[in-house]
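Page 37, top half.
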Amino acid sequence: MQQSENSAGEAAVELTDLPNALIACKVQEDVFNDDHLKGRFEALFLAFDAGTTFQFFKSFRRVRINFTEALAAAEARDKLHKSDFNGKEMRLYFAQSVHIGSPSLQPPKPEKQFLISPPASPPVGWQQTPDAQPLINYDLLCAVSKLGPGEQYELHTGTPTTPSVIVHVCETEGDSSEGEGDGGDAAGEAGKRPRPKIIQTRRPDYTPTVTQ
């Protein structure tokens, strides 16, 4: 007697866990267009539950059948799944229910907030790392400081596979203006490199053509 009561209780629990809606997949397009055929389709499920409602999704060729009880949905699926309707097999599946705990959007968990840019707050145990000290090549600074205008310093000697790196020190504005005022001879006598002239690119000749 106890075994029968336990089995009945387990069956009731299983039925309550089942959804009260079915999804009919790969429904014929005539069901969506023909009212008579649509009525025949609905009558199959109304026989199990008079309060059944239908939602037709023509683009997906699917129909959602909503029952008032999960037991009616289970009976309809058991009787009509893979049955013949209008010359084709009908496939029925239980609709998956999505449970949303709260209607409002909840903030992410604290351990996942570091993925937000910028983060709302650092994760637990996070510590800021100190910035590394800048690397300064004092030998290079000393060599460059000893250069004068017009001189050059080879930083890296060229090899057959790599080019050489040479630093050219630019002349000051005062030296270049003096060189331009005194002329090329004065600049040459002073041992200063004359400032090169920028040669403008000549525009090509334009010959108009008359089309008739």
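Page 37, bottom half:
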Amino acid sequence: MRAPKAGLSQPEDELDATRPILSGLSLPGHRKKATGVRAWMVVDSRGQAEVIEAGKHAIMRRTGLPARDLRILDPLLSYPSTVLGRERAIVINLEHIKAIITANEVLLLNSRDPSVIPFVEELQRRLLRHYHATTAQEGNGDDSNWSNLYDLGEPQSKAGSPLNFSPGDEEGKEEGKQDLDNQDGMKVLPFEFVALEACLEAACSCLEIEAMTLELEAHPALDKLTSKISTLNLERVRQIKSRLVAITGRVQKVRDELEHLLDDDEDMAELYLTEKLVQQHLENSSASSLSENDNMDDEVLQSDMDARIAAEISSPVGSATYKGELQNINNSQEQAFGLTKALSRDSHGIHTSTTHSATGKQLDVEELEMLLEAYFVQIDGTLNKLSTLREYVDDTEDYINIMLDDKQNHLLQMGVMLTTATLVISAFVVVAGIFGMNITIDIFEDQESGMPRFLWTVGGSCTGSIFLYVIAIAWCKHKRLLE
């Protein structure tokens, strides 16, 4: 009764496959998009692009990725720059590049973003050239026309096209590995490395362009602020510093991710998707050849035993000893079966140990390491540019603070001088206050009053105030309170 229930998952798969077709139909009323369905651009090994609408489960079945890895590509969530290597795919989250790379195709999530369109065009050109180079290499083994296919001058890694391996033992492995290399010693990058290189170049170039643009805007603004401190110039520098901090954080995350990959050879080995497919193909071929040999040995032994039993039964002399001979035949058959199984186990053990030794030996990740190092140097140079710009901003801030402190010191000195002048004038006001009192003194009498006495009083008070002020300022300079 459960067989029909198991078949219920088939219509869901067919629904995911036909979703791009149904999405173009206009239904009456309003159109409601299915939950979790997003537009993915699929770029194959020939550079042909196709936009499909698929759900999360369809992408998981197609790439073999768990759900937590797909959450890294969710545009609604904020995840740092990440490059993850899995069994069948590579997850890329670098700046505006959100992609899944398999051994034969690239899936882009935000292909409609205007900043991603140039990357898609460059990726198609690279994959098309890689396809032609691989085809030319497989056709005549001469890739002289494709020696300048990649920007990197170091030997590249293994080809990503499927190969025909001879089933069986180590000779098949050696032939398969030799077919991966070019006759001239040059190697063509696998498909996943071509796509990974395009993603790294797009992310690093985008960050470098933003850093250069910010640098061109920062130097004039900082120089203008140095010459004239104003609210407008300070606001411009504040915005530039905010952008600088944001870009530096993004560049630092990409650099840390590349450094993490370069420090761990096992993580780099996980990115060899084509080589893992080749190893899996070799293991399947060896296992199938061993099973065929076991079946052939069983058939031969069984046919020999049947022929011998028939001969013994037909012979009158052998009919008397049929039971004893039959027992001996059974014993010999068991011994032969045991020997065959032992040989099979030994052969399988040799193959398994050889495969594990080929995988577990010193990991040959030199090609990928050289590829990652090239972009690590580029992103590290961008980070150094931003660090230099940050130092220039800090130096400008220090200079502005020094200028402001100097002006503040001048204002404080002026305040001290004005305070001293106010104190001295207060002494003169005391004299004026004394004369303003309604008291009887000799100077107010008619015989003693007159202009000469008034001038002597005012002039003496002013002279005394000025003398006190000069003494106060001289004392402040002597104590280094004023310059």
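Margin note: The beta strands are 38-44, 49-54, 82-85, 90-94, 97-101, 105-108.
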